[in-house]
Design goal:
mainly beta, about 425 residues, single chain, 2 domains
């Protein structure tokens, strides 16, 4: 009771079972009571009142879901990296991540014309970006510095993985660096003398953070070689790395790698990663589960027969729905699969359009969806496990690089020089 007004609460207390006997016995129900709903000149019974309250509550929930979906389809116009004259920038977004410790978005710009990787942050949900730290080189001018992966953890650390073409570290190498607090980058940590063509970094989803896994791969024709490292940030000093052993089929093999994806589950303390082939029908798609046991990492290859002949275009985990999700493409159609356990998969939908990227906020799935002619790509959401997709307002003029980053109640989609953010807040 608040100011004389009853406070009505509703939620999962209403079951599908019939109401127990007696006017005040049992648990509230969604099932209509037997007999007349209301007999004139008699009090409304507990079963009848609870049914009416639940029916009214569902109308409010449906209206709230509709308003959330409508708001989430409003995306900001394309945002370009700011240039403040302090650092040399390429004008390209290479990676974006959310730093929950400092409650900020962090973006990385690897410059193709100088010996720098520049960093930006935003503390107002992406409305404004400040460029105020850079990883400067120790060698001569670099012809290119390809950012391969970037991730932030819950302890305020962020790791960037990049292929350095003879600039930052003084040699042609694949390197790591730690973005510490708001002061800048650590010095680069060379991982290999070869230049990786694909890579991935993800933060350990369990514990207190301060631990990452980095995977880099080099391509030679139709063959690849991949390496994995446990990475621990070390403030302004080099992060420390420990080599990890990848299973057969991941350490090396025959495949043209299109991209790596990762999908963490905070609830399970697991991270699913995907090796996406480049061409449907020619290259293969692979899934790998990574788990930190408290003393070591374990890697388990996951079998998914339905992916034969398809390439993965995105993976995600929804702890709210208790589902893993994979979006795949067979050269003609896109397919969304979900699984509660990575053993039993359900085909949720087959679509005539292409898509790229996949992420989740709560039980809402987010993709980048192409028009029928693959000319424009729009962020799109589904709140019914892929049965229907609702395209957003902002459109990219070319195929994005499958980059969707999520934070609390917000998603960021970026490709090259443009970044778009969702307007909605409060979505969980």
């Amino acid at each position: 009771m608040s100011n004389g007004i009853p406070v009505l609460k509703f939620g999962s207390w209403a079951t599908e079972a019939t109401y127990a006997s007696g006017v005040s016995a049992g648990q509230p129900t969604k099932v209509p009571p037997t007999g007349d709903v209301w007999i004139p000149s008699t009090p409304v019974t507990a079963p009848q009142m609870n049914y009416l309250l639940n029916a009214d509550a569902q109308d409010h929930v449906a209206l709230l879901a509709l308003s959330v979906a409508q708001g989430f389809m409003n995306w900001a116009v394309g945002l370009a990296p700011p240039v403040d004259g302090t650092f040399v920038t390429s004008g390209q977004w290479d990676a974006v991540a959310y730093d929950s410790f400092y409650q900020r978005w962090v973006a990385i710009d690897g410059s193709p014309t100088s010996t720098q990787v520049c960093g930006y942050d935003s503390v107002d949900m992406g409305k404004t970006w400040v460029q105020h730290f850079a990883l400067t080189g120790v060698g001569g001018p670099s012809t290119n510095c390809n950012v391969l992966g970037f991730a932030a953890d819950i302890a305020g650390n962020a790791i960037v993985l990049f292929a350095d073409h003879a600039g930052l570290s003084g040699g042609t190498e694949t390197c790591l660096a730690n973005l510490y607090q708001q002061g800048g980058f650590s010095t680069p940590l060379p991982l290999a003398t070869s230049l990786a063509t694909n890579g991935l970094v993800f933060a350990e989803p369990t514990g207190t953070g301060a631990q990452f896994v980095a995977i880099s791969a080099t391509q030679s024709g139709g063959s690849f070689t991949a390496t994995a490292y446990k990475v621990v940030p070390n403030g302004i000093s080099n992060p420390t790395d420990t080599a990890l052993t990848l299973p057969a089929g991941w350490a090396s093999g025959t495949n043209h790698i299109g991209q790596f994806f990762s999908a963490p589950s905070v609830g399970l303390g697991e991270t699913l990663i995907a090796m996406a082939g480049a061409t449907p029908g020619t290259d293969t798609a692979q899934l790998l589960m990574v788990v930190w046991t408290g003393s070591a990492y374990t890697f388990t290859s996951e079998t998914f027969a339905a992916l034969s002949g398809q390439i993965i275009t995105g993976i995600a985990r929804s702890d709210a729905a208790g589902l893993w999700a994979v979006m795949a493409y067979d050269g003609t159609h896109s397919h969304l699969y979900t699984s509660p356990d990575l053993a039993t998969w359900t085909l949720q939908g087959t679509y005539s359009w292409q898509s790229t990227g996949l992420a989740s906020i709560g039980s809402t799935w987010i993709i980048l969806q192409a028009d029928p002619f693959n000319v424009t790509w729009r962020p799109a959401i589904s709140q019914d496990n892929g049965a229907t997709w609702h395209p957003g307002s902002f459109a990219f003029g070319s195929k994005p690089a499958a980059q969707i980053a999520v934070g609390p109640a917000q998603a960021m989609v970026f490709s090259g020089a443009l970044l778009s953010k969702s307007d909605i807040v409060g979505l969980t």
